[in-house]
Amino acid sequence: MISAGPFPLMALLGLVAAFIAWLFARGLATAADGGRSRAGAVVIDAFLLGVLGARAAHVLRHAGDYLPDPMSIIRLGDGGYAVWAGLAVAAAYALWRTWRHAPRKPVLLGLAAGAAFWAVGGMALFALQRSSIVLPDIALTDMQGDPAPLSAHAGRPLVVNLWASWCGPCRREMPTLVRAQAEHPRIGFVFANQGEELADVAAYLRAEALAPGNILLDPESELMRLTGARALPTTLFFDADGRLRGAHMGELSRATLEARLRELQ
């Protein structure tokens, strides 16, 4: 998974895009009457409102998935943004705000530069991720101690969840993943425990009364190394050809998981 330390690069790319937009707006505006400061402030406000607008549109579109867990709506790091809505909100705010109080042309050109950087950078990252990460051809161990090659799941979409019983977010999201496994039989699920002994995993599953299928053991955390995962939990989404379609670092909400699964089908 392409990341910079614990941070997904798409999130960092968005921050860099906002900085580029701010630089362009200030650079193109005149210094007279505080024009540069006003242009930069409008760009930052437009960016923040665009993020909120993108989130709100996504939540409204998938309202049914958010109703069982309304608090997940405010977990912005969970993912789930309607890019088209964010761009529309940012542009509308910029047009309104620059009607009289700020230089319009520098602001709009700055936002356009930032959006272009984000779009091109995002497509490049997606292409690099798809070309560099495929379903690892390794054998883990099942709960009976037998080899369990991941290649056995080739030919259909696959969700690979990297987790550990000591990881709080992993424990919180596990019931959501187990429920999704039962509700989406056409999609394979693998729960690859990282670095723990069989007895610890079995004790956790008994204590939580969970019985997911395809619990596999990865005592040396090879999957984290091969996929470049930087933290737990990490969930990887592979298409039927074994190519990575998406990755989520951190706890998954039901709404975000359902959206990812729809993309795989």
UniProtKB/TrEMBL annotation:
<keyword id="KW-0812">Transmembrane</keyword>
<feature type="transmembrane region" description="Helical">
    <location>
        <begin position="108"/>
        <end position="128"/>
    </location>
</feature>
<dbReference type="InterPro" id="IPR050553">
    <property type="entry name" value="Thioredoxin_ResA/DsbE_sf"/>
</dbReference>
<feature type="transmembrane region" description="Helical">
    <location>
        <begin position="41"/>
        <end position="58"/>
    </location>
</feature>
<protein>
    <recommendedName>
        <fullName>Thioredoxin domain-containing protein</fullName>
    </recommendedName>
</protein>
<keyword id="KW-0201">Cytochrome c-type biogenesis</keyword>
<feature type="transmembrane region" description="Helical">
    <location>
        <begin position="79"/>
        <end position="96"/>
    </location>
</feature>
<keyword id="KW-0472">Membrane</keyword>
<keyword id="KW-0676">Redox-active center</keyword>
<dbReference type="InterPro" id="IPR000866">
    <property type="entry name" value="AhpC/TSA"/>
</dbReference>
<feature type="domain" description="Thioredoxin">
    <location>
        <begin position="129"/>
        <end position="265"/>
    </location>
</feature>
<dbReference type="InterPro" id="IPR013766">
    <property type="entry name" value="Thioredoxin_domain"/>
</dbReference>
<keyword id="KW-1133">Transmembrane helix</keyword>
<dbReference type="Pfam" id="PF00578">
    <property type="entry name" value="AhpC-TSA"/>
</dbReference>
<dbReference type="InterPro" id="IPR036249">
    <property type="entry name" value="Thioredoxin-like_sf"/>
</dbReference>
<dbReference type="InterPro" id="IPR001640">
    <property type="entry name" value="Lgt"/>
</dbReference>
<keyword id="KW-1015">Disulfide bond</keyword>
<dbReference type="InterPro" id="IPR017937">
    <property type="entry name" value="Thioredoxin_CS"/>
</dbReference>
<dbReference type="Pfam" id="PF01790">
    <property type="entry name" value="LGT"/>
</dbReference>
